[in-house]
Design brief:
This protein has 195 residues and is mostly helical. The protein is built from eleven helices and no strands. The protein has helices at 6-25, 32-39, 43-49, 53-64, 67-77, 82-90, 97-112, 114-124, 131-152, 167-182, 185-188. Helix 2 (32-39) packs across helix 3 and helix 6 crosses helix 10 (167-182).
């Protein structure tokens, strides 16, 4: 029984089961009862650790899609190696089939449900980041989501899709990420007509 695992073990089991079920079934089709059954615990324990399905999903997103702190450090670095550093950290999980499936599950849920999309969006941008840096991070996130999805669908050449070695992918993407980091997106957006 989950109760013998202790609080930390039970919470981890719930998170692992929720991540797997959200990945497999999506947000809408994942019930808290199913998560509890998969985690081997009483459904009431989910309410003890998480106030709602939304709170559980938020926790899964925060653990699965973890770029906020990476982005915060990248914004602070701003040196010539920042783009490659950011990419190496961002794509680390792609080579792990379980983690990749969970990330794609979070993306699938975000496409399916506006509330899930909002939660994922909030998890991407570090607190306190706004203005041009927020736009830069949105562009980098869009690039990474597109590349990861294309990689999953087999649309990238094999040398950019190899599990376990992302060095070629990092090398190819680094100039684009460096351009986003250096761009002034506020100046690039034309002012509305009449200004």
């Amino acid at each position: 029984m989950a109760e013998t695992r202790g609080a930390a073990g039970t919470r981890r089991a719930i998170m692992r089961s929720a991540a797997d079920l959200f990945a497999e079934l999506g947000y809408r089709n994942t019930s808290l009862r199913a998560v509890a059954a998969d985690a081997g615990c009483d459904p009431a324990l989910i309410g003890h650790y998480f106030t709602s399905k939304e709170a559980l999903y938020d926790a899964v997103v925060a653990e699965t899609v973890r770029p906020a702190e990476i982005f915060r450090e990248a914004m602070a670095r701003r040196d010539p190696g920042t783009a490659e550093w950011l990419l190496r950290h961002a794509v680390t999980d792609w080579g792990d089939p379980v983690q990749r499936r969970r990330i794609l599950g979070v993306l699938r849920s975000a496409l399916d449900l506006p509330a899930a999309r909002e939660r994922m969006s909030q998890s991407l941008v570090p607190e306190g980041v706004g203005g041009a840096d927020e736009i830069r991070l949105a562009l980098i996130s869009s690039l990474l989501v597109g590349v990861m999805t294309s990689r999953h669908m087999g649309l990238l050449p094999p040398e950019l899709s190899a599990d376990g070695d992302s060095s070629e992918l990092v090398r190819v993407l680094a100039p684009a990420v460096a351009a986003f980091l250096a761009a002034d997106p506020v100046r690039a957006v034309p002012a509305p007509a009449g200004d």
